[in-house]
Design a protein that fits this description.
inorganic pyrophosphatase (n-terminal core), 314 residues, 5-stranded parallel sheet, binds manganese (II) ion, 6-stranded mixed sheet, Diaminopimelate Epimerase, Chain A, domain 1
Length: 314
């Protein structure tokens, strides 16, 4: 890994005029990585900008120091992007042009001449912290804030199993650089818009159990989403709600995308049920603990279908 970090550092110091690509439906890790790397490169007098499909409201603070720069792109770098498909609308412009890929996903399918991938890192930002040390970047408060945000979001605020001793040490170093962790944690993990709270209330009111309380299903219907005016920002994170209930091994959330078309998110206790296999029954897939699929039908039909499948599994 040390050798790879050195190569990536040398590459970044040797080139200029950077477009830094983030993945579509950007999260705190890809955006934190993008804006941190952008600021780091500018420290060396280089031109750089972050290319993103969206900047969700709660992450606007990451872009605070990055004033617009106009230049002709020479070097394309991707951060936290596991596959070119995940570039979304930017795939057309940048597909096949990535010169350096920096990522932490176990499976990375980006075809780039230079790849710096560490699947032991909790987050891409944890990896960037090492890379910045190799480059001699001065980790200013804005850079540290970006890196901390990426680490915190990818680890569920240091709760998930990807939180390693190194993750916590990195976070400690970032706190030394002046990060206001309580403020970031409050804004990202302990704050809900009134609409989101109302949404959760309505979702809980649809909750039904089966398999002796070991499976819970709840739904956000199109009517609810329209009435509350909620979008992807508010719907983010609702998939984990039913799994928080004591005794529930399979938690399922349905989100109606079009009339009678449901996007199904399954969270499972992976020691008992494989969520990816569960979703494969309906043409979907994913990970052992978290997977998804899409099913057509009325709400009652879809719930019945999923409950029957859950009862077979449990
Ligand atoms: Mn990530």
């Amino acid at each position: 890994m040390r050798e790879t970090l050195r190569q990536a550092a040398d590459f970044l110091l040797a080139h200029d005029h950077y477009d830094i690509l983030t993945h579509a439906y950007p999260d705190g890790d890809t955006l934190g990585s993008g804006y941190a790397l952008c600021a780091a490169l500018r420290q060396f007098g280089k031109k750089a900008r972050v290319i993103t499909t969206a900047l969700p409201r709660n992450f606007v603070f990451l872009a605070a120091g990055a004033e617009e720069q106009s230049f002709e792109t020479e070097t394309v770098v991707s951060v936290d992007v596991a596959d070119e498909k995940l570039l979304g609308a930017n795939k057309e412009t940048y597909g096949g042009r990535i010169a350096l890929c920096i990522d932490h996903h176990e499976i990375n399918r980006v075809d780039a001449p230079l790849k710096c991938v560490d699947s032991c890192a909790s987050s891409n930002c944890e990896l960037l912290f090492l890379l910045f040390a190799e480059m001699g970047v001065q980790v200013t408060k804005p850079i540290a804030t970006c890196l901390y945000t990426g680490i915190a979001t990818d680890t569920g605020c240091f709760k998930y199993s990807n939180t390693s001793p190194r993750t916590l040490r990195t976070a400690a170093d970032l706190l030394d650089c002046g990060v206001d962790a309580p403020a970031i944690n409050k804004a990202l993990f302990d704050t809900k818009s009134p609409q989101k709270l109302q949404l959760e209330q309505e979702i809980y009111s649809t909750l039904s159990y089966c398999a002796d309380g070991r499976c819970a299903v709840a739904a956000a219907t199109l009517d609810t989403q329209r009435r509350l005016g909620v979008g992807d920002d508010e719907l983010e994170g609702i998939a984990s709600l039913p799994r928080q209930i004591e005794g529930v091994e399979i938690g399922i959330i349905l989100r109606e995308k079009d009339p009678n078309v449901f996007k199904v998110s399954v969270r499972a206790n992976e020691r008992l049920v494989n969520a990816a296999q569960f979703c494969a029954r309906f043409g979907g897939g994913g990970h052992a603990a978290a997977a998804g699929c899409q099913i057509r039908g009325s709400l009652d039909e879809v719930v019945h279908l999923l409950q029957t499948a859950a009862e077979e599994c449990l």
